[in-house]
Write a structure and sequence with these properties.
Blueprint lengths: L13 E15 L5 E8 L4 E6 L4 H9 L2 E11 L2 E10 L3 H10 L8 H13 L4 H13 L1 H9 L13 H18 L6 H10 L4 H4 E3 L5 E4 L1 H23 L3 H13 L15 H24 L6 E4 L4 E4 L5
Parallel strand pairs: 3-5
Antiparallel strand pairs: 1-2, 1-4, 2-3, 4-5, 6-7, 8-9
The structure holds fe (ii) ion (2 copies).
Keywords: Hydrolase
Enzyme class: hydrolase
EC number: 3.1.-.-
């Protein structure tokens, strides 16, 4: 059961399922006994849960695992749902993967399929220098490629699940390819390369938990953010393949300007067509995922007050 559906049920309702443990602490109750104070979550909701008189061996289970099978009873505290955990079990690895997708914590499309598509897009880049650059970053650098494939697109904002960064990057790149088909004035290879590298800095900006979900920013992520980190990564990749100066300069500008304006984190506004298009395509992918997810949290025909989009989002009653 999705946690957002809990509130439809009365106090005493029994729930069983595999959930993410997004916070866990051992505390001492008034009777002097230890209890587990946790937050369990799926993609859309977080619910506080208490595990009274927690056995010692169960504490280790919570500390070592990001996902557990939980049996709990529903209660309400000041009208908000709260769970009392009866027991927890370690799920099988296959159950974990299946649950991550059903809880919306994994990109809907298999990561390996998306990676194959990314490699075929790179193989079709006409400009040899750019193709070399992209192959160097996304294929030859195994360590980066493995991280990039599973990385979330954000902690909360959009594509905030395992494989979200790859999914978002592909959406921007495929959007760019489609748009170029209708307009031959666009420098296709520049736009495509810019689409693929625009968020590479997120791999160093976002800190992930043992499952691969974003839990906050790394130290360098907080201090430098993904635009500066991406610029640094691109700079060294351009140098190692000896990319011509003008193309490297254009790509760097695309990374710097992709958020569009200073208040959204870009130190410069887009100053040529491909940079401007990248900004719109990036926004288009982000907004599509945000609207879809925020509407999902409402009932059909109802509204959800979205903190991310700073407005109420309507879920059409017609589906
Ligand atoms: Fe970005
Ligand atoms: Fe992006």
């Amino acid at each position: 059961m999705k946690l957002g559906e809990l509130v439809k049920n009365p106090k005493g309702f029994k729930i069983t399922g595999i959930y993410r443990i997004s916070r866990f602490e051992v505390k001492t109750a008034r009777n002097g006994k230890a209890y587990g104070d946790c937050l369990i979550s799926d993609h859309s909701f977080e619910v506080p849960a208490k595990y009274w008189d927690i056995p010692t061996e169960r504490v280790a289970l919570f500390q070592k695992n990001g996902v557990l099978r939980i049996d709990a009873t529903l209660d309400y505290f000041k009208d908000s749902p709260q769970l009392t955990i009866e027991s927890v079990f370690l799920p099988l690895p296959a159950e974990v993967d299946q649950s991550l997708s059903s809880l919306g914590m994994m990109a809907p499309r298999p990561i390996d399929d998306m990676y194959v598509e990314l490699k075929s897009i790179i193989a079709n880049v006409g400009h040899e220098g750019l193709r070399k650059l992209l192959t160097g970053i996304f294929v030859d650098d195994r360590q980066f490629a493995e991280k990039f494939k599973r990385h979330p697109g954000a902690v909360k904002n959009h594509h905030a699940y395992i494989g979200g960064l790859l999914e978002h990057t592909l959406e921007v790149a495929v959007g760019a390819l489609d748009y170029c088909k209708r307009n031959d004035k666009i420098k296709r290879d520049i736009l495509l390369a810019a689409a693929l590298v625009h968020d590479i800095g997120k791999v160093r900006e976002i800190e992930v938990d043992m499952l691969g979900m974003g839990i906050g920013f790394t130290r360098e992520g907080k201090l430098l953010r993904h635009i500066s980190l991406g610029l640094e990564m691109l700079e060294s990749a351009c140098q190692s393949v000896g990319l011509e100066a003008e193309i490297s300069l254009m790509l760097k500008h695309c990374i710097l300007s992709h958020h569009g304006q200073a208040e959204w984190g870009s130190p410069v506004e887009p100053m040529f067509l491909e940079a401007e298009l990248l900004h719109y395509l990036d926004n288009l992918s982000a907004k599509t995922e945000q609207f879809y997810r925020e509407a999902e949290r409402a009932e059909p025909g109802g509204f959800n007050k979205s903190a991310t989009l700073r407005r109420e989002i309507y879920r059409p009653g017609w589906e």
